[in-house]
Amino acid sequence: MLAAAVWACETSKTPTTIQRDTTAPTFRFTAPPKFPVDTQPIGGGLQFSYTATDNLTVDSVLLTFSGGFVATIDTGFAGTATSLTGSARVDSTRLSGSGGNVTIIGRSKDGAGNVSKPDTITIFLLNLQALSVTLTAPTPGTVASTGKFIPIGATAIQNSGGVRRVGWLLTAVSPTGANQVASQGDSSVVLVAPFPKTLSLPPDSLQVIGATGTFTLEAFAVDSANRRALSAPVTVTILSPLNDTTPPIVGVQMGTRVEKTDPVIVSATDPSGIADVGVIIFRDTLNGTVLDTTRVSLSGRKTGVSDTFPLGLTIPDDSLPVRIVVQGFACDSSSRHNCGTSGAVDTALVVAGRTSPLPLGGTIADAIYNTNRRELYLTNPTLGRVDVYNLATGSFVPSGILTGGPQPWGIALWPKDTLGGYDNNKVVVANSGGTELSVLDASSRLLLWRQDLPNFLIEKYSVINTGGVYRPQITVYDVSDRPQYVATVCRVTTGTSTCHADSIFAIYSTTPTVSSSSPFNGRATLRMERLVNPGSPPDTSKLFGHLFWEVWSSGQNVAGDTLRVELVRGLPYNQYQIVLTACAFRTVNIASFGLGDQTFVRNSGDFTHAFIGEGGHITTQFARVFNYSAKQPLIAGDGTNLSCEPVSGYPESGRFDRDFGASPGALVSDFISNTGIHVLSVATNFNGITNLVRADSIYYLDEGLRLKGTSAVGSSTPGMDMNYKHNFAPSGSCNPTCGGTANTANRMVFAASPDTSILAFDTYFFNQQKAIQIRDPIVGPLRVALDTATNTQYVFAITSRGLAVVTLPSIPNINPQAPPFRTRVSGAGRRRR
Predict the structure, then answer these.
(1) Domain 249-351 classified CATH 2.60.40.2550?
(2) pLDDT for 429-464, tens place per residue?
(3) What is the pLDDT of residue 12?
(4) In 441-478, which positions are buried (b, 16+ CB within 10 angstroms) versus exposed (e)?
(5) pTM (2 decimals)?
(6) Could you tell me the residue ranges of all domains in the chain?
(7) Which of 58, 281, 328, 481 could form a disulfide with 342 if both were Cys (CB 3.0 to 4.6 A apart)?
(8) What pLDDT, on the 0 to 100 scale, is given for residue 70?
């Protein structure tokens, strides 16, 4: 009856149905303001605010990012709110490599699926590492005429990930719809990985077919993550060449600090076309000595040209820096052959060095020079290759060495004797992406063999009391075995300077992993491995590895943690050895046993010493350094076996391998007085008796790790190396010369300076001797090497634009023979207790 009554009631009115919500929500960006475009630094993330409303419920907000950052973010909301105000922030960790104009399109959606109209905002994300693109030609102010050609050039740079594509676009014409040029599309270069950091468009041009008006061009680029960037637009005006009586408009582009072979770009435009273009280089002033004049003749078919002229200066490096003034000139192709010069001139400082870009980009971790082949080998872990620079040709070998192993990091030469001789072809590379060293043949560019590295188990041997019953407890710490930096040393055949065939060793630090047992997570260790090809199947009797526990040892029967070390080589070696038994009763502080996560290792030029500096992130109060001498005894093997029974019923036995060449724990130096200072690089001289550490200053240590002095230099540029012939001590007698008997011009270290120069310091008096100006800041390794073919020393340094090669001038030492009076500073050079 109720149902019938209801039905009767409804039939007495107009029938209705449930109405679906068709009202769209709204969405609007509220901050930052849309005009002018807001600029935000990448470190603070990408930040903006918005509001969304709906008549019933705002369900979600969809944000689409394009341009300098590509992403889609869909955010849902719980509840029944009809109005939302949101503040959004894209964290800087998500923005790595992003930058430039980022366009954000926002929409909101309600519960019924209705979507708002989009709102758009553009934010300029400031990131010096972001993708950037420049339209290099035509230049602003370029004019054109019917039938002539406009040159087009574009260059893109992306230091993080590389450039995938670069090209140009015709973006506007005036009058609207006019057919001004012969091509309406774009031209581009598209690459496959690995992508270079810099990519330029090959020479291109565009024919003008319009009689009057304008057209606008832009360059574009796409990086490895498909982020897109646009250049500033350039508008070209079409003029008539009839009765042309004016000279071309000429401009000059050049850096303010240049190398002797750097390019000068001369741009010229004229409606009659350009017939000649050139450049004049003056010394010091516009009326100074003319150093060079270059001129090229052209067809006259292009109304705008942009030609590149190398400076081509022959001034020796030791006569630099020199100031130059550059003026461009051009003549048109009219019957009057009008000529003009650039309205403004460019002034630049010519500095030392010649820079070559890395063949495929990437980053350089370490480098070593082989004078026998006149080649510099540079590890490129980003691309998994070893780049090769040929000094004779002044260029990189395009193919490099592709067999360098996973993530090649440290690199060293193969010693032959302790006079500085090394194998012509063998190179040792530490593979931080694996657990091996790669031995390469530099002549064939092939792998000779991979030396598998052992797994070391660091153990704490304790005796515990459980209900009155004593028993041993072994706590095992598993640590990373992946090598990072490497040095090579050798022990000689008795009575000679020749390396014994079975006594060539690699000393290497490890790159830590977070998965290692605490307190070794994120910590490195220091080790040694005999370099030998074990054959196939491997002959394990040839293999020897050592963990340098000595540098942490507190001694025997001293309070601390009793140390036990096991060496394990898995299949196919199947080798297990206790190389430090608890019966040796060696104690350490396990908590401070590990090293910083970037521990540097360098060997002396005569292969008798190695110097190690704890760098990266460290957990101790100060960074530590270590010294190693291959002249000291190495006692290892079955003849060192010990046995004991620390606890009744629990016998213990194993080897007592020990290397007396490692710095004793009592000599590990705390030379840095300020906590939190990071070691950035280390260096050692030819005979290993002067050792340097680069941190907030340069610290000079002797063979016993005693601090002898410091030199003030910034810490933002870590590269440093000594004169190849340096064989002085940082202290001692001054008879006949201080610290040694050789030429004091060799008693110098060369250090990268934040002011874009290389500073030379005396390593005995610690004062600056010379500043060598270069073009770009040094951002990676710096190496000094002797090229025996020319008896010339060179500095090889990784800069922001590639490898800079500087011919070292002869630098007379300005210091007197006798040292000045010194005042002892309390606490300087104290040993760690």
Answers:
(1) yes
(2) 999 999 999 999 999 999 999 999 999 999 999 999
(3) 42
(4) bbeebebbbbbbbbebbbbbbeeeeeeeeeebeeeebe
(5) 0.75
(6) 27-126, 132-238, 249-351, 356-451, 716-818
(7) 328
(8) 83
